[in-house]
From TrEMBL:
GO cellular component terms attached to this protein's record: mitochondrion
Stated name of the protein: Sequence orphan
Length: 286
């Protein structure tokens, strides 16, 4: 009896933990989903980010800047897609989506019996995605401020870095952690969308009303230095607040709304395919 029981124990150990199999394949799916979503949303984000900085610096209006970017995209698409501007924005969102995806994958892997398509909303995911997004966005914003600001290129002051970090932490919180919680209060099927997809669009968009003043103050400190009083800075922020907020909503909807939905959908379908293959392998093995 002991000998006949032994193969059963070994057989169970080899097949009962599908979550611990195909880890490399799952990470590859995370990467593919992240890059696909980032490339899809980067053109719109490029145009809007550039226009906001040029408008804040007084270099060009929002409309003039976006018109110039659209013209380049249509008439010289190779220059647009191979530009430093496109590369910097794509780097930010591909990196952020990838860290969010792989965090979910490794949490599922460690759990051993969780659904590999699950999207989490815990502290670990917030810490990983926010730190990655803040670091990559600071690299992007430092380059954008120098490329599209006014005057000679100069060092970005520490208060500007601090304000940008606060801005990005809010954005990440509302983009990755709030939607799974908010979706519980939203009925499925509204507009033909799932509750999570709706939350992934609404949460980061509404966040921009809170984070735009931080963004504008950071840009003002970079463009005009620290010689002005708070009253003057608040006036500059109030003048640009509404149009900049609307512009940032227009950029955040593709960035973490549409991009977030696309990333989640791509990851879900690829992970589901991996799970189906694992199930078939277990069936073949008996």
């Amino acid at each position: 009896m002991q000998r006949s029981d032994t193969p059963l124990v070994v057989h169970k150990r080899n097949t009962a933990s599908p979550q611990n199999a195909h880890l490399f394949e799952r990470v590859a799916a995370d990467f593919a989903a992240a890059v696909t979503a980032a490339i899809a949303v980067t053109p719109a984000i490029c145009m809007i980010d550039k226009s906001i900085i040029e408008n804040a610096s007084g270099r060009r209006t929002l409309v003039a800047s976006i018109r110039d970017s659209v013209t380049q995209l249509i008439t010289r698409p190779h220059n647009f897609f191979l530009s430093r501007t496109f590369g910097l924005v794509a780097m930010v969102y591909a990196g952020t989506y990838l860290v969010a995806n792989t965090t979910d994958t490794f949490l599922s892997y460690r759990g051993g019996n969780q659904d590999i398509t699950e999207v989490t909303a815990g502290t670990a995911k917030f810490a990983a995605t926010s730190s990655t997004n803040i670091l990559l966005t600071l690299v992007k914003d430092r380059n954008f401020a120098r490329m599209f600001g006014v005057g000679l290129s100069k060092a970005v002051p520490l208060p500007t870095y601090a304000l940008f970090c606060s801005r990005d932490s809010l954005t990440i919180l509302f983009s990755f952690n709030v939607p799974p919680i908010l979706s519980k209060a939203i009925p499925d099927g509204v507009g033909g969308m799932s509750s999570l997809s709706i939350a992934q669009i609404l949460a980061p968009a509404s966040c921009q009303m809170l984070s735009t003043p931080l963004h504008l103050l950071g840009l003002d400190l970079y463009n005009r230095g620290g010689r002005l009083g708070m009253k003057q800075r608040m006036h500059a922020i109030s003048v640009n607040y509404m149009k900049s907020s609307l512009a940032r909503i227009c950029r955040i909807v593709p960035a973490f709304g549409v991009g977030g939905v696309l990333n989640s959908k791509c990851r879900y379908h690829m992970m589901r395919g991996i799970e189906d293959r694992m199930r078939n392998e277990r069936a073949i093995l008996g």
